[in-house]
Amino acid sequence: KAGVTQTPRYLIKTRGQQVTLSCSPISGHRSVSWYQQTPGQGLQFLFEYFSETQRNKGNFPGRFSGRQFSNSRSEMNVSTLELGDSALYLCASTPSVDRGMGGYTFGSGTRLTVV
Amino acid sequence: EDQVTQSPEALRLQEGESSSLNCSYTVSGLRGLFWYRQDPGKGPEFLFTLYSAGEEKEKERLKATLTKKESFLHITAPKPEDSATYLCAVQATGGSYIPTFGRGTSLIVHP
User: Fold this and answer.
1) Most-buried pick from A1, A104, B63, B84 (CB within 10 A)?
2) Residue B94 pLDDT more than 90?
3) Facing B42 at nearest CB: one of A56, A105, A108
4) Residue among B98, B100, B103 with most chain A CBs within 10 A, to mutate
5) Which is it for strands B70-75 and B19-26: parallel, antiparallel or unpaired?
6) Does A5 or B97 have the greater pLDDT score?
């Protein structure tokens, strides 16, 4: 059974640029969540998508956005990159029925470095 | 606001030296408490969900317990392959179902 797939694994971008990250959830999982992980702040929730609709949003500026497609694949976009956006971006999927109570399945993440 | 505090931040053990990791939490009402393991360069891997005080769950050398204010992850006779960062998260009743994560405990087990 394939896990959660995130691409690319590594990215180096320059301040001011934009970036798009991709996530393919486990087959049959309709809920996809995105997290930012940094050494200083730990895991911070970005947003959650279910059936192509944003169901929840964390406390991040509007430069961070996302979407979900009809096949449950999700993308997140960060515009006007800042140095502080350097982080590991993690995607997680869950079966919609349990709302995550059985645990999230995380991808290996995209390591974004902004220079 | 939900809060999760993990201690210690880092822990070094010798192989076979048992110990416990702590997760203290503050939520208006607990729907579930989760433990994850994260290896370097990878995403967190789900270990357990605990739902109510007094509950215990075990997996190999790991045993998680839950009280009304904290959870412990007991590691019995650890091996070097148990080295990882262990994350705790809580999901509160009402609201969004989004878990709040602690910052983790980095465990290193020396052979």
Assistant:
1) A104
2) no
3) A108
4) B98
5) antiparallel
6) A5
The nearest CA of chain B is from the CA of A55 a distance in Å of 8
Query: Smallest CA–CA separation between B70 and chain A, in Å?
Result: 18
Residue B92 identity (one-letter amino acid): A
N-to-C CA span, chain B: 41
pLDDT of A4 reads 97
Side chain identity, residue B59:
K
Q: At A49, list the tokens.
A: 């998508």
- At residue B4's C-alpha, the angle toward residues A38 and A4, to 5°, is 50
Half-sphere exposure of A23 (CA within 13 A, CB side): 33
Confidence band (pLDDT; 50, 70, 90) for B96?
Answer: confident
Put simply, whether A85 touches B (Cβ < 8 Å) is no
Chain A residues lying within 8 Å of B104, measured CB to CB? 42
Q: What is the pLDDT of residues A8-65, one digit of tens each?
A: 999 999 999 999 999 999 998 999 999 999 988 899 999 999 999 999 999 999 999 9
Q: Cα separation of A109 and A33, whole Å?
A: 12
Average pLDDT, chain B: 95
Name beta bridge partners: A76.
A21, A66
